[in-house]
Specification:
Strand order of the largest sheet: 1-2
Strand content: 15-25%
């Protein structure tokens, strides 16, 4: 049926494909996590001087410490 050499080659190719598949999966997962953290809007509270973040696209954000509505920082 299969000789020893064909079996070893098949095993090595299967092992390489498994590692490449795992590498691709974890690379994409980590990239999505990084992008989600990176794409946030930063706010600075003018009342209590705290810096905090909110989800992307928010123009107004409520301060978690004093509940004051602040506009986003613009650089």
């Amino acid at each position: 049926m299969f000789d020893f050499t064909s079996g070893v080659v098949f095993y090595c190719v299967l092992l390489a494909a498994t590692f490449l598949g795992l590498w691709h999966y974890y690379d994409r997962r980590d990239y999505r996590r990084f992008e989600r953290e990176r794409r946030k809007t930063t706010f600075h509270c003018i009342r209590c001087d705290q810096i905090y973040t909110a989800s992307l696209g928010a123009e107004l954000g409520k301060c978690p410490r004093c509940a004051h509505e602040n506009t986003r920082l613009k650089f």
